[in-house]
Task: inverse folding
């Protein structure tokens, strides 16, 4: 069995300030890691993912996440946020043994960016 | 690409009734998954369909059932609705094989309220 813990339910941040969203996971087997973002009244969109290779992964809109195997973490960071980054962010895993790719999500972190 | 479309967007039902939610997959995607997202929580996996057969199920009772059609569209049926079934229901599709590692395409969801 596996679980995903997002340590902060809500993160208020000022525009142009940095933000970090924390994600820890627990699993008896190795996992693939994902961050999805949900803008208001929309479905989830893939932000970035770690499958293998370099432990630092980046998105096209300035987010990055680092896989830390020893700490079983996959924290998401952005050095300077915009108002448009206001959304809910979900960390998720897929067990590498699961050929059907069931996503296990954390409870989500609501990011509220204010001017 | 047309994305994933879900209908209806909102629905109000009475406890004990039955409901059918519909999903049209993204073009080229033949695997469909359904998730339940209760208020303030992350999405929970309900089940997945591939080639019109259920190939994975989460911790949901049998009154949650589904169908996938030859055109890869899908339905989620819930019988004997309970108040706790009130949630956002998300449909997600992916490409064949390891397409889930590229990231699922989610619909905007159906908001079900049971009164």
Result:
């Amino acid at each position: 069995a596996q679980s995903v813990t997002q340590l902060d339910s809500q993160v208020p941040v000022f525009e142009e300030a940095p933000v970090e969203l924390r994600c820890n996971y627990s699993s008896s087997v190795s996992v693939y890691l994902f961050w999805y973002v949900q803008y208001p009244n929309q479905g989830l969109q893939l932000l970035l993912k770690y499958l293998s290779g370099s432990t630092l992964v980046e998105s096209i809109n300035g987010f990055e996440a680092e896989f830390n195997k020893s700490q079983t973490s996959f924290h998401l960071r952005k050095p300077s946020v915009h108002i448009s980054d206001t959304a809910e962010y979900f960390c998720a895993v897929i067990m590498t043994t699961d050929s059907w790719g069931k996503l296990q999500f954390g409870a989500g972190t609501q990011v509220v960016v204010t001017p | 690409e047309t994305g994933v479309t879900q209908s209806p967007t909102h629905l109000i039902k009475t406890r004990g009734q039955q409901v059918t939610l519909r999903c049209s997959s993204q073009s080229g995607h033949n695997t469909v998954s359904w998730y339940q997202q209760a208020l303030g929580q992350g999405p929970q996996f309900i089940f997945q369909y591939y080639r019109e057969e259920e190939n994975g199920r989460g911790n949901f009772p049998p009154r949650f059932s589904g169908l996938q059609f030859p055109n890869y569209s899908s339905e989620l049926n819930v019988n004997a609705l309970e108040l706790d079934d009130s949630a956002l229901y998300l449909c997600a599709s992916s490409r064949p094989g390891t397409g889930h590692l590229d990231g699922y395409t989610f619909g905007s969801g159906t908001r079900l309220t049971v009164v």
Remarks:
- The two ends of chain A are 42 Å apart (CA to CA).
